UniProtKB/TrEMBL annotation:
Active-site residues annotated for this sequence: E82
Protein name: Gamma-glutamylaminecyclotransferase
Organism this protein belongs to: Eubucco bourcierii
Presence of the UniProt keyword Membrane in the record: no
Annotated Gene Ontology cellular component terms: cytosol
Gene transcribed to yield this protein: Ggact
GO biological process: modified amino acid catabolic process
Length: 156
């Protein structure tokens, strides 16, 4: 099992969460909520209003999201879904645990007690330079006050 941190449309209550609970795509077990230890720019960009975490450590905000434990099948699905490695790149990042639900063993408890876990995160280094000038968010909600509702793939 691998640990994945999601900050955008794959979170609970967001437009693509259905994929996280579709066991035909693999297993994803919610572990808790967290935020990036380092600051990153989280922007909403493109004509489909897609949330992107730009891989520029030290700039932006501590980005909030959810921590999942996923099996290899789900990790492979997420790689494909996220257009990895072209649109997003899957990298390890340090995530500060804000609220922990995972109780799957000593290692999990140890990590949660220390307050920081390593998770795979889909961020991007392949973006147009003007995205750096977009507003930065610390948390993503498709129906947030920004007014930039995400456009589902099936509606494009």
């Amino acid at each position: 099992m691998a640990r994945v941190f999601v900050y955008g449309t794959l979170k609970k209550g967001q437009p693509n969460y259905k994929h996280m609970i579709n066991t035909a795509k693999g297993l994803a077990k919610f572990q808790g909520r967290g935020r990036t230890v380092e600051k990153y720019p989280l922007v909403i960009a493109g004509k489909y209003n897609i949330p992107y975490m730009l891989n520029i450590p030290g700039t932006g905000h501590h980005v909030a999201g959810e921590i999942y434990s996923v099996d290899d099948q789900m990790l492979q699905f997420l790689d494909e879904f996220e257009g990895c490695p072209d649109m997003y790149q899957r990298t390890l990042m340090r995530i500060e645990v804000v609220e922990w639900e995972g109780k799957s063993g000593v290692g999990e408890t140890q990590a949660a007690a220390e307050g920081v876990v390593e998770c795979f995160v889909y961020s991007t280094t392949t973006y147009p330079p003007e995205w750096v000038g977009l507003p930065y968010y610390d948390s993503y909600d498709s129906s947030g006050q920004h007014g930039l509702s995400y456009v589902l793939r099936e509606s494009r």
